[in-house]
Specification:
Elements (H helix, E strand, L loop, with lengths): L1 H13 L9 E15 L11 E7 L3 E11 L2 E10 L19 E2 L2 E7 L2 E9 L1 H5 L30 E9 L6 E8 L11 E9 L3 E10 L9 E13 L2 E11 L6 E13 L2 E10 L10 E11 L4 E12 L18 E14 L2
Antiparallel strand pairs: 1-2, 1-3, 1-18, 3-4, 4-5, 4-6, 6-7, 7-8, 8-9, 9-10, 10-11, 11-12, 12-13, 13-14, 14-15, 15-16, 16-17, 17-18
Length: 352
């Protein structure tokens, strides 16, 4: 029943009498990979650590539009839904019986000469700040398997939040910023309020960013769970780019802070882009053997302006006390290596 309702919701957007196709943009991404994974656990009669997965990586479709309200002011809206290219369901889950719709950046707001104001369900400024520096974004080697993750906390700072209000200054300028407030509407102690902000400098050659996020009263002992990160990237021209990201998390209490950093490099030659990234998660709170490292290497080949295929290999080496995973293996075995070969096809579509 939910799948039928979800399908009618999508169809309804396409048939709204007040919206012509010229007034509504339809964009999205279809992304599928075949992964050969090893979660690091020991083989046993009931457990095989190796596996072959067909994975949908954040495939999604977005409907968006705007209405001019006067000089320099427009009403803006978007509804974005995740679909699983591997199961056909309108969500990002792997459960074939879960027919709910998983929404992504969905909002209404106002956009003008002083910036944009939005309310809805969106990625936080903290999450978005370093997306341009994640060269393996939305693949099995996405660095968000380590960044935003604190082994001593149940919270993830790589957050897309509901009940969020955001402001972003005009991004056509080289220097711009964003701030967001996450509301706790029901005050049930589950979804506590939060603050997220970022500042970005981007002149197309140099990219620099700083971001901060605080999730109220969800850390250890009811303390705030805080995060801060800095990132930078440089385009050397002739196809070569480098990037670096550093992050510090603190879930409150004792021995619940953790730093992480990544260095990456990519080189474009013809239709091929070679990528290499090295990531380190330091020990948590100075406790020995509670860190991890990851290396990812890949080749991406552009078949057109909208379509690419790729192959990559990534491995996370866990110390004896932690079990960081990968995008497709979120929970690695404690103290073991987690690895994957991934072969993917990705297509961006615009205004079907």
């Amino acid at each position: 029943m939910n799948k039928i309702i979800g399908s009618w919701a999508i169809i309804s957007l396409l048939s709204l009498p007040q919206l012509s196709m010229a007034e509504m943009d339809i964009t999205g991404i279809a992304h599928l990979s075949v992964d050969v994974t090893d979660d690091g656990s020991k083989s046993s009669p009931g457990n095989d650590p190796d596996g072959v997965q067909v994975v949908s990586h954040k495939s999604r479709i977005a409907f968006s539009g705007d209405e001019e309200l006067g000089p320099g002011l427009a009403f803006i809206w978007q509804y974005e839904a995740v679909f699983s290219a591997d199961t056909g369901a309108f969500n990002g889950n792997t459960d074939d019986n879960d027919n709910s719709i998983d929404t992504w950046d969905s909002y209404i707001g106002l956009d003008g000469s002083i910036g944009s104001f939005k309310g809805g369900h969106m990625a936080t400024p903290y999450r978005q700040a370093t997306d341009p520096l994640d060269i393996f974004i939305d693949t099995t080697a996405d660095f968000n398997s380590i960044f935003g993750v604190n082994p001593n906390s149940t919270n993830n700072h790589d957050l897309r939040a509901s009940n969020i209000l955001t402001y972003q200054s005009p991004d056509e300028k080289k220097l711009y910023g964003s701030i967001a407030y996450i509301a706790d509407e029901d005050q049930d102690g589950v979804n506590e309020p939060g603050l997220s902000l970022s500042v970005v400098f981007n002149n197309q050659v140099l990219y620099m960013t700083a971001a901060y996020q605080s999730l109220k009263r969800v850390g250890v002992g009811g303390e705030d769970d805080k995060a801060i990160k800095f990132g930078g990237g440089w385009d050397f021209g002739q196809g070569t780019k480098v990037g670096i990201v550093w992050e510090s998390l603190d879930a409150g209490g004792t021995n619940n802070d953790r730093d992480a950093y990544q260095f990456n490099i990519s080189h474009l030659t013809g239709n091929n882009t070679f990528k290499l990234a090295y990531t380190v998660a330091d020990d948590v709170g100075g406790v020995s053997d509670s860190g991890a490292s990851n290396i990812a290497i890949g080749l991406f080949h552009a078949l057109s302006r909208s379509t690419e295929w790729y192959g990559l290999y990534t491995v996370t080496n866990n110390d004896t006390l932690v079990g960081y995973g990968l995008e497709t293996v979120p929970n690695g075995a404690i103290g073991e290596n987690v690895s994957a070969f991934s072969f993917g096809l990705r297509h961006e579509f615009n205004n079907l």
